[in-house]
Write a structure and sequence with these properties.
The protein is an alpha+beta fold and 186 residues long. Helices cover 31% and strands 31% of the residues. A six-stranded antiparallel β-sheet has the order 1-2-4-5-6-3. Strand 1 and strand 2 form a beta hairpin. Helix 2 packs across helix 5.
Length: 186
Amino acid sequence: MAAHDQGTPALAQATESPATARVSASPSTNDSDPSVLAHVEHYHGTRCTASPIYAFLLGEKDGSLVRFTHARKGLFTARLLLAAQHLNSAGGIHGSVSATLVDWAGGLAIAAWDLRAATGVSVDINISYLSSARLGDEVEIEGRVERVGSNLAFTEVRIFKVDARGERGAVVASGRHTKFVKGTKN
């Protein structure tokens, strides 16, 4: 019976709602790599904004709605202030917007991995919707490479609501994105 009691706190932590659980703070700008950050910003500004859906959701031509805050090998973070085009009819972030952000951030994480000029094509994407955000809320998007192989790259993306202190709050959505990357390395 004592062994069971010792495991109870861990079980309680494991069953906490992912939407309300705090996740580690944003990566520090101190450990950001300026060359990777410049590459991610350039990749977004030239390749991503050429896509009408990304331009609509993230800013026309210059990506003016999204602000990159950190990048290093295989990881980047950016912030986005939610506007009308990001919302569903109930006033929350639209599921298709969250899914598009997972697609976008997965590709940028691969670009951040080794400064490649192309990030391949999607072969699988999935997303879990955990909470919501509304008009005027800021969200932080984190794209992270799990593995880049010769054929496939695997990424994880999380979207956080930014709280009143400007820190990560609840996880809004979490996704995984797999891309076919053969022939994309510089």
